[in-house]
Amino acid sequence: MSRGSGLLDPTAGDPPLSREFTMTDAPSPETSDPKSESSPSFSPCALPTARELTLAELDRAFQRWLDEHADAHAAYKIEPPDFDDKLELLRALQRELFDAGWARYGWPEEHGGLGGTVLHRATLVEVLERNGYPPRHVFEHLDILPPALVRFAQPTTLAEIFLPTLRGDVLWCQGFSEPTAGSDLAALRTRARRVDGGYQLDGHKIWTSWAKWATHCFVLARTGTAEERHRGLSAFVIEIDAPGLTVGAIKQSNGSMELAEVFLDEAFVPDGARVGEEGQGWTIAMHILAGERGSYTWLRQSEMLARLEKLARRPSALEHRARLGEALMKLIALRCRAREVMEILARGEEPGPESSVSKVLAIDAEQYFYEAAREILSPGLDLGTAEEIDFWQEHYLYSRAASVYGGSRQIQLNVIGKLMISRGISAGRDTKQSDEIAAVRASVEEAIEQSKTGREALEGLDWWSFAAAPEDEFGRAAFSAWFESQGATHGTSPALSGIRATALAGALSAEKETIAWAIADHADSLLVVGLDAQTRWIAQERGGELVAHAAKGLSAEASEALDRGLVTRVRVEATKARSLEVDAATHARWGALTQIGAAFEILGASRALLRMAIEHSNEREQFGQPIARFQAIQHLISESQIEISSHEAVCRAALEEWSAGGGGFLARIAKAQAGRDGCNIAQRALQCLGAIGFTDEHDHHLYSRRIHTLDVIFGSYPELRDALGADLTETAQAPRGIQTWHPDGKA
Q: Cα(73)–Cα(133) distance, rounded to whole angstroms?
C-alpha cells in the first residue's frame, strides 16, 4: 500500500516529534524457554516508555523502524500456503518485534513491558497492517488473554509465562466452549477437582482455536456445583503437553485446521496455575470477552480495510461502487466504535453490553465485506478461477461462521435487548462526560424546551458564536446537543441552513443565520430549509454556481415534502438571482459540517423513536404478558440500539475531524449512515408500536417524516454511498478517518 497520501498517512500534517530517540540493537533474551525451572530473564529495552511519547509519536517511530528494516522484512509479507510455515514466519516476526522492544508497548512496566494500554497495542497493529504485514492469526490471543493474566494470574505463573507470551515463545488457545456449553457458557461441565497440590481436570472442550499449535491452554472449569452455574467456575492455565491432555484437530469447511477439541483426562494443574480465586472464573471470562470485542474488532477492521483496497483495484470494481461504498461505511463505523470500546478498556473500566454491540457490528461488517468480495470476484470465487483463490475462498467461508463463533449474533441481540427493555434508553447512552459538558448539553435542551422558536433558543444560548463553528469539546457538545435535541422534539430552526451558508455571508454582507438554503428547485419554485420571518436571503447551488435570491417580497407556501415543517416552497424569478464568488474549499468545508448536523438531528429522532418503542413494549400486553418479553421485540430493539451506538460513534468522530480541520470524509460517512439507519429504526419502531403507530395522532410519523426528509437533504444515503465507492475505486485507497489517538492529542 502506498504511504504518500495524506488520506492514508496518519502523520500527514502532524507537528514534528517533540523528541527524537534511537534504539540500540536489543540483545536476545538470556532465557526464553517457558518451561525452564527459573523464571525467564529478558534484557532491558532501549526504547522509551509509553509515558515518554504520544500515540502519534509511537506510530511514527515504529514506521521509521519498519522503513529501516524494509528489505530484511520483505519475507514476512509473503504468506506461505502451509500454516505450519506461516506460523513459524509469524513467530519469527513476533520475536523480532519483542527483541527490538515494540511488542512490549501496551503492557505494564512492572511486568517487563514499556507501559501504555490497549491503544498502544492497536497502534502497532495498525502500522503493521498499513505496511502490508500478514494477519496476526494465532497472535490474535495477545490482545485477548494476556490482559486477564496481568490482572488475575498469580505472580509466579505470570512471571513464567508473560514475557515469553509477548515474544511468541508461548502460544495460547482458549478452552471455553464444550459440546453442551457454547453460547450458554455457564452450563459447562469440565470439572476441576481438588487434589493434593492442585487440581485434577476432567472434561471435553471443543471449537478451541489454535490448539493444534498452542503451547498453553487457558481453561474454564467447574469447581462448584452445576446448580451454581456461573458462580461455580474457575480459571486455570495448563501446558498443552501436560499428561492427560489430548488435542484433536478439526478440519473446517474452509480447509483450515484452526479449530480443535481438547480432552482432559485427570490432567493435573498445580495451585499456582489457577487464575484468580476459586469461583472467579465467570468474572475472568467476561473480562476476556469484553477485551476481545474491543481490540479484536479493531484488528479485524484494520485487516479488512486493507483487503477492501485490493478489491477496489479489480477491473470491474467501479460497477460495484455501491457495494464497495457500503463496505467502507460498515468498516469505518466498526473502527469508530472499536476505538470507543478500547478507550473504555484503557481507562480500566468494563465496557459491559457495549462489547456486545461491537461484536454484532464486527459480524455484520465481516459478512457484508466478503459477500461484496464474492460479488466483485464473481464467478471466480465460486468456480475457483479468481486470483489468490485459496485466500478468498478460505476467508469467505470463514466469514459465514462469524455470526456463530465467540457468542452468536442472536445471543448478543438477547443481551442488548434485555438490558434496553429493563433499563430503558439510558442503558445505551454514554454517561462518561465531565460536569461541564453535561451542563452544556442540559442548557441546550432547556433552551429548546422553554423558547417559542428555534431561532429564539439559538440566540438565547449565543449558540452562533461558539457552536456553529465548533473548535473545542464545549463547542462540539453544544453543536451535537442542539441538533440531537431538535431531532428529538422535531423542532425547526435556521441552524442547518445558517451553517451551510457561512461561506456566503461575507459576499452578501449578511449574518449567516439570516440566510436560508434552497435544497432543490421545482418548476418556478425553490424548496427551502431554514426559512422564517427574519430570513434576508435564500442561497442556492445552481448549475455549478452559487446564487442568492433576496427574500423580501417572495411568496412562500407549504411544500409537499414528507416533513412540511422542515421544507418550504418559495416562488422566485430565476433572472433576479445574484451570482456569488466564494472559495470552493471553504464552502465545501461548511457543507461537511452541515452534513454532520443533519446526521446528529437524525440521531436525536432515532433515539426518540427507540425510547417510544421500548416504553410501548413494556406497557402493551399480548398473550397475558408485555410484548417486551418476546424475543422478536427484543431483537428489533437491539438492532436499533446497535445502529444508534454505531451512528453516534461516527458522528462524534466526524465532528472531531471537522474541528481539527479535516476534509469531511467522516462527514459523508455520518450523513449516509444516518439516512440508512434512521429509516431502518423508524420501521422497527413501527413494528413494535403496531397499528397505533400508524395513526395520525401518534408521533411516530412525525419522526419518520423528519428522518426521511433529512436523508435526502445535503446528500442522500444512496448518493453518498455510491460516491464513497467511486472514490475508492479511483484511488484504491480507503481513508481510515480516525487513528487510535484523537486530533487534539487526547487518548
A: 9
